[in-house]
Specification:
This protein is mainly beta. It is built from no helices and 11 strands.
Length: about 110
């Protein structure tokens, strides 16, 4: 069973940067795509970014974050990062890490909207 723990959330202002970290445990975690989603109050969960398991140079981004956010994965494949730059009117959302069928509990990013 894969377990995921997110960290790095906090308060941000427009134009600032923040890096989120997702740490996985479990034998199969390194094989699967790791992804970030976010959910603002009263809204549906939105895809943010993903990085593949074995081909860690293969990434995908949601339209709203392309060019501003960067997802990466360490050499062990067990930790994923989401570098968020030029945070503009992101508002408040909880950012969740996903690996196959596992989800973390999320980390909150509180920003001006």
């Amino acid at each position: 069973q894969v377990q995921l723990v997110e960290s790095g959330g906090g308060s941000v202002q427009a134009g600032s940067s923040l890096t989120l970290t997702c740490t996985a445990s479990g034998r199969t975690a390194g094989s699967y795509t790791m992804a970030w989603y976010r959910q603002a109050p009263g809204k549906e969960r939105e895809f943010v970014a993903a990085v593949q398991g074995r081909r860690r140079n293969v990434t995908e981004y949601g339209d709203s974050v392309k060019g501003r956010f960067t997802i990466s994965r360490d050499n062990t494949g067990m930790t994923a990062y989401l570098q968020m730059n030029s945070l503009e009117h992101e508002g408040t959302a909880i950012y969740y890490c996903n690996n196959h069928t596992s989800w973390g509990r999320g980390t909150q990013v509180t920003g001006s909207s």
